[in-house]
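dude i think i finally got it to work??
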Amino acid sequence: MAPNGTKVTVESIENPEPKGSENPDYSQRGQWLRAAVLGASDGLVSTASLMVGVGAVKGDAKAMVLSGFAGLVAGASSMAIGEFVSVSSQLDIEVAQRKREQMSKGGGKVDRDGLPSPVRAAAASALAFAVGAMVPLLAAGFIRSHKVRLGVVAAAASVALVVFGWVGAALGRASVGRSVVRVLVGGWMAMAVTFGLVRLFPSTGL
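look at this
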């Protein structure tokens, strides 16, 4: 899920906007790109929040970076599997519907043109998540100071969220300011809640 609660999907990769439209529907145009932006935002926020949470109780740079890398791998894998299962279910439904339509017309081969690809959807979701997750990882990987590292992760995540919010709004011709504020505040809240809750637990023995 993206920080604003929107479920990230990429089924619309297989359903581009019809040609020849004089008044393009911006809710359809570039929808797969917006899904990719949301997937990257998801990877960014979840990984940055995980790293900030670990940094709340551990000053070791290695622990923070390893937790972020684990979050990247786990999140990308989860996104890929979830998207594959979701799109496969959608594909089964659409194929079954086309078979019923063909049977009513006397049979024949089912046309699979325009049907979604589960493999492509899974790969796109995993890649988008990984791209977003790399931002806090690269930001924290070469900083020794614990406090500076936490600040850099938060700052890098904030800058990336502004970019993602702007791109998402531009693709959909929506309000840029509103989109940026919504994504940025959502990311800040996720990091702050993770940091605060983890700080409630004692770090002794970790």
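The two ends are 29 Å apart (CA to CA).
im so relieved honestly
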